[in-house]
Amino acid sequence: xxxxxxxxxxxxxxxxxxxxxxxxxxxxxxxxxxxxxxxxxxxxxxxxxxxxxxxxxxxxxxxxxxxxxxxxxxxxxxxxxxxxxxxxxx
Length: 90
Known about the structure:
With 90 residues, the protein is of the alpha+beta class. 30% of the residues lie in helices and 33% in strands.
């Protein structure tokens, strides 16, 4: 399943997040796959697309970052999958 991970940097401190990432990497558990990410121009939030079978893996990963980041996990599907899901109702 795909998840859009919305990260809000605590105290608007993106530098602390990037510093830890440079030193320790993503620290994702096996089974959690990073797909892509986008960062707001003002560095307040990051939007990461992640893939895994269980939200439990996202929670495990987030434990390494919760002192610096507030997380929201949103299950998502591709536009193609959404169109296919509603096609029968059109």
